[in-house]
Design goal:
Layout: E1 6-8, E2 16-20, H1 30-41, E3 45-49, H2 52-60, H3 73-83, E4 89-94, H4 96-110, E5 116-120, H5 136-139, E6 145-150, H6 158-161, E7 170-175, H7 186-189, H8 193-211
């Protein structure tokens, strides 16, 4: 099955960001499209792709459980090869997509293949299972990383994440009252989804610019 990319943003952007989708929603989901659009409007070149199981689901309409994140490392590496960008590259994704990228980031960064890691809603633990942490790679992360996380994300709230041992190379952008898709309840927080997308885009753009210097 040929790999297909969704591209947003200027072709001559200084930094390209490669994003994979989450476990249950495709690369053109509402949340991913909104984030990609906001990042592209901030001057970044955004490439989205799907793992084979999601692409097959799109064709067949049959919804099967996603494979374990560790089994998708090879597919992510293949997507990097297929994209073939020459300038600084940031890898990452939404939820599981960002987690898969985090598993290969240090090796690729050591090889000079990538400049950083961007996670949009990192799944620090399964919902309702705060003891099953997925932070082993994050504790010793050497790659510059930025995690955008809603403060009420059920995969890792601000209070929970504050207790984790994370690498100093990781920066976290906390979006007030945001859920796993970074969406706030305006009546509760005073922020709209558009407000958080604007903050996300400005923060990622500035962070990526530092990586490219």
């Amino acid at each position: 099955m040929a790999l297909h990319f969704l591209m947003d943003g200027p072709e001559d952007a200084r930094v390209t960001v490669l994003l994979a989708h989450g476990a249950g929603a495709p690369m053109d989901s509402v949340a991913m499209s909104a984030s990609a659009g906001a990042l592209a409007a901030a001057g970044l070149r955004i490439a989205r792709f799907e793992f084979a199981y999601m692409a097959a689901r799109r064709q067949s309409g049959v919804r099967k459980p996603p494979p374990r994140a560790e089994t998708l490392e090879g597919e992510y590496r293949a997507a990097i090869e297929a994209l073939g960008t020459a300038g600084p590259l940031v890898i990452g994704g939404k939820s599981m997509g960002g987690r898969v990228a985090s598993l290969i980031a240090d090796d690729l960064q050591a090889e000079g293949r990538i400049a950083g890691l961007l996670c949009l809603g990192y799944p620090f633990h399964p919902i309702g299972k705060p003891g099953q942490l997925r932070t082993a790679r994050l504790a010793g992360m050497r790659t510059p990383a930025l995690i955008a996380q809603g403060t009420r994300d059920l995969f890792g709230t601000r209070e929970e994440v504050a207790t984790y041992a994370l690498s100093p190379r990781i920066e976290i952008l906390w979006l007030e009252d945001g859920d796993h898709d970074l969406r706030p309840r305006k009546a509760v927080s005073g922020f709209s989804a558009a407000d958080h997308l604007k903050t996300l885009a400005a923060t990622v753009s500035a962070w990526a610019a530092r990586l490219a210097t």
